Amino acid sequence: MKNCLVAQSGGPTAVINSTLLGVVKTALESEKIDRVYGSIYGIEGFLKEKIFDFNKEDIKEIELLKYTPSSALGSCRYKLKDFNEDESDYRNIFLNFEKYNIRYFFYIGGNDSMDTVDKLSRYAKIKGYDIKIIGVPKTIDNDLFGTDHTPGFGSAAKYVATSIMELSRDAAVYDKGIINIVEIMGRNAGFLAASSALAGYDGVCKQLIYLPEIAFDMDKFLQDVSSAYEKHKKIIVAVSEGIRYSDGSFVFEDKNNKAHDKFGHSQMGGVGRILGKVVKDKICKRVKVIEFNVLQRCAMHFASKTDVEEAYRCGRDAVNYALMGESGKMVCINRINSSPYISENGLIDVSEVANKEKKFPISWITKDGNNITEEGIEYLKPLIAGEVNIPTENGLPRFSRLNLCL
Amino acid sequence: MKNCLVAQSGGPTAVINSTLLGVVKTALESEKIDRVYGSIYGIEGFLKEKIFDFNKEDIKEIELLKYTPSSALGSCRYKLKDFNEDESDYRNIFLNFEKYNIRYFFYIGGNDSMDTVDKLSRYAKIKGYDIKIIGVPKTIDNDLFGTDHTPGFGSAAKYVATSIMELSRDAAVYDKGIINIVEIMGRNAGFLAASSALAGYDGVCKQLIYLPEIAFDMDKFLQDVSSAYEKHKKIIVAVSEGIRYSDGSFVFEDKNNKAHDKFGHSQMGGVGRILGKVVKDKICKRVKVIEFNVLQRCAMHFASKTDVEEAYRCGRDAVNYALMGESGKMVCINRINSSPYISENGLIDVSEVANKEKKFPISWITKDGNNITEEGIEYLKPLIAGEVNIPTENGLPRFSRLNLCL
């Protein structure tokens, strides 16, 4: 018996199950693999032997994974210790690998999950275990090294840009000035907030964009917004949740007391509300603060077709690479051409990816630090291309209902 | 010359421009109407002679209105005074009607806008002006009298239910309990929050729903949530922004000091954050507060096909009714059958609609006051049916760009 195991880890995305389907379908169809197991709640669930058997599942529900957002197998944020310091988790994991005859393990996740792939594959090599371990990338933040971009990002970017366009139409309806502050995910990397620039061409409201890659300066920000408001009256400010002052402190922490209320208490909540308050006090009473919240990472209903297909392909190729004998690697996406867009998959040593974070290139931010250059736009554009027709039932998405209980 | 005027009023919806297209296209094609004017920023803009000439616009951009959210002509919240007390606005409006040879006026809006239709048509009758004035319904709140439902509601309901489904998938990924509080629009009528029940069948998280139609009781709420949490661990609480205590005060005002912070200050913000704080203090630390915000009323990208088509039809029939000589009426939608769903348009005296508010029927709320009955679901279901394929360009919606500057 040669079985395989697949698991998901870290924050969910709209297309992480498209990748799961790529793995599961390819493995189910392969003659070299007998059973296809899923670990429920990531590697942490595998330690507790929470196993799902895909061979027993209705193939229709499996196929629906392609258009089902969030981690269908559940997820975890579990960091393995260095095996030289504490081997206990490794022993238990490999005991379970043996118990279930797991010869292939696919871990779908971001940079922390690649750390797990790295450690497990190094441990397997040292101990001489016959198992191929492949990482499959996902993250809405697009902050993974060694790949042009990451599955999950394109759909989140499309959601952000589309919602900004719609919001911009909504904001423009009255004959009055308005400043909308939109808080977008991205603690360290500004790719997602940057993708709001894609909405720019529709140009109903003037847009300003602030990313964590540029140190935030409250005075300059207020000057930017104020002069944009004077000129355009209808403004959208798109801001990464992770923007920071030059001292490295997050704006949402408000350590510099820029947004203290009249009682001297620090404002609660995210950066959007902090900036909203300051703008309301100093520039314009008509301020709306909008948080895209988890919707930006779980909205499958207007996903990027490019993203869904690439996510699927990454899962599929992970299995193919493993069957070719590869291990300790992550599937990556190489961009061959931007326009027309062509990409192909490749492999990269997972040690080059694990625990690193890619940033939005400074050279793609305009000189005044509040917008994205044409080159940046050209990078982003193909990733949101194409629409999917998700299966529906009674007017609502028909998501996969695997026979497991999260 | 017999010209017509169309305007939009009140809060925007995803499909208010589908209605606009229904009016404009039918009027442009009619031999009885010469020019088709739009008033920019509603009746208030008409007072300032802000006029848009549809005959001069590219027909392609006009056709794109069908899938363009928010009020393309801009909007206002302008209440006409009683003409027995102050006739000045009426004089100016009718001077402009004469100046532009307006013989037909179509006002797309909610109950306040129907008050304008009512007053203008009564004034015209008294003064003997030859003008037909027809109201065309829109509102995401679905609170208009005299119509089974209102264009704009179905698409908002579909957005709410779909987002709740996606959110519910997102919330379930970790092996931990979580309580999500989702704040949904609806100051006085709970239709939109009720539509979150449509997501119920997908059943990943246990859902509780609170509407303004039932007096809110904080102790009962905490008991509901607490016992749901004990049993199901993963909970979504959908709540109308307008829920009220039995004394009539809004929960978000927090007059009863239920959610005061430790310094004794009232919490800022909406009802979601108020409830989130109380739940965090008393039940579970893992609480997420999500506001759907204006996105729920401007999201065209996953609109209800039924809603888009009905919105269009209401605009079309408004013109047809006016050409038949009707005035002082509102187009309404009559439900002939629920399953299969059949509806047809009708007319109702606008005086029966103006300034009134319909509520979500109490009989459609379950006895424990925190969910929707099957009968309620059956009412809601057909309104979100069907998907539209909106025109796209570079992966983003291609909205209409009328040659006017909002």
- What is the beta-strand fraction of chain A? 15-25%
Q: Are there runs of chain A of 5+ residues with pLDDT below 50, and where?
A: 261-268
| Termini gap of chain A | 28 Å
Side by side, the strands of the main sheet of chain A go 3-2-1-4-5-10-11
Helix content of chain A: 25-40%
pLDDT averaged over residues of chain A: 94
Oligomer: homodimer
- How many domains of chain A? The number is 2
Largest interface: A-B, 65 and 65 residues
Number of strands of chain A: 13
Q: What's the CATH class label of the largest domain in chain A? A: Alpha Beta
The CATH topology name of the largest domain in chain A reads Rossmann fold
Label the overall shape of chain A.
elongated
Order of helices and strands of chain A: EHEHEHHEHEHEHEHEHEHHEEHEE
Domain Phosphofructokinase (chains A, B): 4-319
Catalytic activity (chains A, B): beta-D-fructose 6-phosphate + diphosphate = beta-D-fructose 1,6-bisphosphate + phosphate + H(+)
Main location (chains A, B): cytoplasm
Protein name (chains A, B): Pyrophosphate--fructose 6-phosphate 1-phosphotransferase
